[in-house]
Each structure stands twice: as C-alpha cells, then as structure tokens.
Amino acid sequence: MVLPGNSSTREEQGAQQRGSDFSELSRRITEAGLLRRRPLYYTVRFGAVTLALAGGIGAFLALGDSWSQLIVAAFLAVIFGQLALAAHDLAHRQVFSRRRPSEAGGLLVADLLLGMSYGWWMNKHTRHHANPNHEGKDPDVSPDILVWSQRQARKAKGLPRFIGKHQAMLFFPLLTLEGLNLSFASFKALGNASMKRPVLEGTLLVVHFVVYFGALFTVLSPAKALAFVAVHQGLFGICLGSVFAPNHKGMPMIEEGMRLDFLRRQVLTSRNVRGGALIDVFMGGLNYQIEHHLFPSMPTPALRRAQVITERYCAELGIPYHQTGLLASHREALRHLRSVGEPLRGGGD
Length: 349
Description:
With 349 residues, the protein is an all-alpha fold. It has helices spanning 9-17, 20-31, 39-63, 69-91, 99-114, 118-130, 150-155, 158-164, 167-175, 178-189, 198-219, 222-248, 262-268, 277-283, 289-294, 303-317, 326-340, 342-347; strands spanning 272-273, 323-324.
C-alpha cells in the first residue's frame, strides 16, 4: 500500500500550512501533563525486570546441567525482550531528560546485557522515526532480506529475490534469527565512522558474549548449551518481532517526492494495537505506536491517555487513524508481505 503522490505547488503549500495541525495537538498533550517524567513508574518497571533477570540467572545456576534449562532459556528470552524495551525507552529519553544518564543506561542495558550496540541501533532508529515507511530513507524497510514494496520486489536479486517469493510464510521462522542478527550487525557497525564510542561499545559487547557463552559451556554440556542458545535466541527474536512488526508493516509506504506534514506522516504510516494491561506490558507501550511516533519522549504510562486525545483530534481533521487487535495486526502485516512479493512469484527467476 503506497500513499498517493503529491507534487503540485498548490498541494505542497497546503501541506506546509497543515504543519500547524501538530502544534495544536502538541498544545493539548502538554496541557494534559502527558510529557512529564514518571520516575516512580520506571523505578518499579526496571526494578521488576532486574529482579526477573536475577531470578532467571539464579535458576540457571541452581539447575546445573539439566534439560530443564530450556525452560529457563524461554523465560530469559521474554526478559531480554523487556530489556530491549527498556533500552528503547532510555534511547528516547523517556526515563531521563538529560543525555548522559540516558546514554549510560542505554549502553549498560543494550551492549552489556543484550549484546546489541546502543550507538548503532540509536542511529538506525532515529532515521526510522524521521521517515517511517519511506523507501530509501527508513532503514527498517530497506530490502536487505525481505522486500517491503512491489517496486523493491521487481528490483530484488540474490537472497531477497529468493526469500521474497515466500516471505509471508518465512517471516516468523526468520524472526528466530533476529537476536543474533542484531548482535552481528552491532559488531559489524563498530567500524563505521558514525559510531561515537566504538572501543567502549566493542568492549561491552565482548564482555557480554564472553560471560554468556562462558556460563553456558561451563554449566551445561555442549549439546545442552547449543539447545539453550537456540531456544533463548530464537524466542527472543520472535518476542522482538511480535512487538515491532505490528507497528508499521502493512501500513502505507511513502515514495520519494511525496509531501506530508509531520502529523500526517507519522499517523498514516503507523498502526496502534488494541489491548489491555497485558498488551501494554508485553509491547512496552509500543502498541500506542502513533502516539509514540508523534511524541517519542513521552513516558510509557502517559501513552494511553494520549491515544484518546490523538484519535479524537485526528477525527476532527479527517485524518485516518488505524488501530486493531494484536492478531489482526499480524495478519495485516503478513498479507502485505505476501502482496508485495507477488511480482517475484509471478515473474519467476
């Protein structure tokens, strides 16, 4: 699904005039006090995740060389998912308003605990927020392995061309490799000129994997250690995909030359996921993806109230506002993947 083009001078001027629409929404959100920091919430949330992580490590050490460790691996996969969400909130300065404590927390959680470069991910995620679903500008829709538009499919070669034919069916199996892919990309990025602290991040990443694999192969037999890695990393990747994939996949794509103001660019390319407290916890507030993209530094607990204000405001302006259930969001994403791969299935090799 691609948004209609917009290239005339009159329409461009109209888009510029509509830029004030976001200012009005921002005023309403600010007056509601939804941008205030929530230190108690993050103290409780991060404290709970820390205790759960400590409990998982304690169970690992207590069980020893046992196949029951695969249960611990599954549990720690979920906890790693929550750590990734914590790193995400730190990167957006939802926890601390100042840069230094945000970066220190991000380096600790992402590099040391998760084995993922904070600096690399921060650069990538910032570009995504600036141009969501924009072909050529959003790194999350670059045709590395999967294709996200029929235009990408027609140009695909090699592995993306082969996988693109059946990418809807392969999507969740591929997610099992996402955790390892993030770590591989992190080490690869250490040589990039954009990395601010390559030595520090490289050291933290090495420490993470030395401790991770050292503990596994010290406590477990080689077969059990490899099984632990497969379960832990595989489920961790699925957790990440289940949180991030519903947010933009299957929503309209933006092509070069299209002109949208900030409000419409963020709302039209994002999808909210309905649900109660359980969905809020599992997705870390990213189920309110529209509000998160409009106000990235907004603390997680404020997003629910912001959703009501934003949806009503979009209705006033006649801006389509899309939200659906978790399963339906995945169906929409998979349907999109299948649709954009059609040129590859129809055209053959």
